[in-house]
Design a protein that fits this description.
With 64 residues, the chain is mainly alpha-helical. It is 62% helix and 6% strand. The longest helix has 18 residues.
Length: 64
């Protein structure tokens, strides 16, 4: 599967989720899923959005 979104597009999408309770729950679910897959916990000074973006970029899920 080829990456379909750029880093900027995905960042805007994730930031929009922060404004809604259901979106925040989705971000928490993604964080937990990515932690389980990658074995890395989110550093305390890193936002959930940045954590998700870093994981997706490392996995090749975003295009340039």
């Amino acid at each position: 599967m080829l990456p379909t979104k750029t880093l900027r597009e995905r960042e805007k999408e994730l930031q929009a989720l922060l404004g809604h309770r259901a979106g925040q729950e989705l971000l928490s679910t993604l964080e937990a899923r990515y932690q389980a897959r990658g074995g890395k916990t989110r550093p305390q000074d890193t936002s959930v959005v940045n954590y998700i973006l870093m994981y997706e970029r490392e996995q090749g899920l975003l295009r340039r």
